């Protein structure tokens, strides 16, 4: 008789909900001037990593690893370009208000350059999942758009890299409802 832990039927019964899908999500960026209506234009994104540094403390030929500071990696999204370049222009305007293109003046204080960026996974039924991540950043790089006469039947897209200073991901994870795993059958 097969080990019950290896039965496909039992595997399917271990989780009472549905599995999260990578292609069901939307991204929103709050803020005014310029307004960014990008929810339908973000093609790829990610739920950002959570990193705590390690401080090694030597003691009698051993190293004790102590939790260090939390750091936030840059976050990148791929954006589908619209024919009027409205979304790209809004990102460029946001950058110009942080540091101008000609005069290098800024219209923002350091804190006001940041905007909340909400990454919301969706359920297959269309509703929001209980897990969402809100990061705070600004566009440090707006990627190139490749053009070619040889490219047919493709939509223009580009990447935007955001410098992230902090996120509320931990708060969302703590407050989120969790799925329950069924006990393994003996």
Q: In words, what does this structure look like?
A:
With 186 residues, the chain is an alpha+beta fold. The chain has one domain: Pnp Oxidase, Chain A (Roll). 14% of the residues lie in helices and 33% in strands. It contains three helices and eight strands; from the N terminus they run αβββββαβββα. Strands 1-6-7-8-5-2 form a six-stranded antiparallel β-sheet. It is extended. The C terminus is likely disordered.
Strand order of the largest sheet: 1-6-7-8-5-2
Largest beta-sheet details: 6 strands, antiparallel
- What's the domain count? 1
Number of helices: 3
CATH class: Mainly Beta
Helix content: 10-25%
Write the topology of this structure.
Elements (H helix, E strand, L loop, with lengths): L7 H6 L11 E5 L12 E3 L6 E9 L2 E10 L3 E6 L5 H13 L16 E7 L11 E10 L14 E11 L1 H7 L11
Antiparallel strand pairs: 1-6, 2-5, 3-4, 5-8, 6-7, 7-8
Protein traits:
single chain, 186 residues, alpha+beta, Pnp Oxidase, Chain A, 3 helices
Summarize the model shown.
The chain has one domain (22-175): Roll (Pnp Oxidase, Chain A), CATH 2.30.110.
